[in-house]
Amino acid sequence: MSDLLQTLNAHIESALTTKIQSANIALHELTIEIAPQDLIEVATFLRDDNQCAFEQLIDVCGVDYLSYGDSEWDVGGSGFTRGVKREFSFDDSELDTDKPEFKGKRFASVTHLLSIKNNQRIRVTVYCDDNEFPLVDSLTSVWSSANWFEREAFDLFGIMYKDHPDLRRILTDYGFSGHPFRKDFPLIGQVEMRYDEELERVVYEPVSIESRTLVPRIIREDGRFTRNRNTDTDENANEVEK
Fold first, then answer.
1. Rounded Cα gap, residues 128 and 162, in angstroms
2. Residue 164: helix, strand or coil by DSSP?
3. Integer Cα distance of 58 and 36 in angstroms
């Protein structure tokens, strides 16, 4: 498989030359990065070229790199442990104003393509130039199946797709504010909704739950709990014998 991907990568780089900003083969997958202005040209080539023949678009998804590299997990000798307290907060009222502004391109639109003819896959990554108004071209003119996927990326990440025929929310409510998959969106949301029997309609209210970090149960294989349980059992047995 790696030889086939190497051949495919060499063919794409040879045909598109400077259009490919970077290419990487990892875990038997080929990923190429291109500039936003080259997306339609590169996508059309990947679809129509006989050696590529990526006739099917599998997915278009958004990525937010705001907190990329930050972690709440502490890796110690006893296993992985999630911190009870966050190092920083996503609540606008508690944001650290001294925290440095995010450097680099925050949002990316990632397209996954499949060639049924050649039994190959490729991932195409495009980073949005403007962090305040992330914008890339719509792929609906190349693959019509991009329609709903781009609407999902717009709804959840706020990525705009130029020339999309019907770019509107697809998962959240009509009056929803913000984009829930952005890293600075509160985990508890901004409002909650319920049906009011007196008004006979759905009403929106401020969130009534408190923001907290959920610490999942960690199963460790070092036997610490087994040893403690055996020790407690032995001590209890000794007390009964006395």
1. 12
2. coil
3. 20
**Tens digits of per-residue pLDDT, 8-39?**
999 999 999 899 999 999 988 999 999 999 99
Q: What pLDDT does residue 56 have?
A: 97
The interaxial angle of helices 2-16 and 39-48, nearest 10 deg, is 130
For 1, the domain range is 1-66+107-171
Name which of 199, 202, 55 is nearest 120 in CA terms: 55
Integer Cα distance of 19 and 30 in angstroms: 16
Confirm whether 185 is domain-assigned: no
The burial class, CB within 10 Å (0-12 / 13-18 / 19+), for 59 is middle
Helices of type H across the chain: 2-16, 39-48, 146-157, 224-241
Q: Is the pTM of this model over 0.85?
A: no
Give the span between the Cα atoms of 81 and 72, in whole angstroms.
Answer: 8
Please name the residue ranges forming H helices in 115-208.
146-157
Query: Any idea what the CATH number is for the domain that residue 60 is in?
Result: 3.30.460.80
Quick check: 137 and 162 in contact, CB under 8 A? yes
The answer to the question of residue 237 being in a domain is no
Averaged pLDDT in 10-residue chunks for the chain of 242 residues: 89 94 93 97 97 97 90 57 50 48 90 96 97 97 98 98 96 88 88 90 85 62 58 53 52
Q: What are phi and psi of 241, to 5 degrees?
A: -65, -35
Work out how many domains the chain is built from and give that number.
1
Asked if the structure places residue 42 within a domain, the reply is: yes
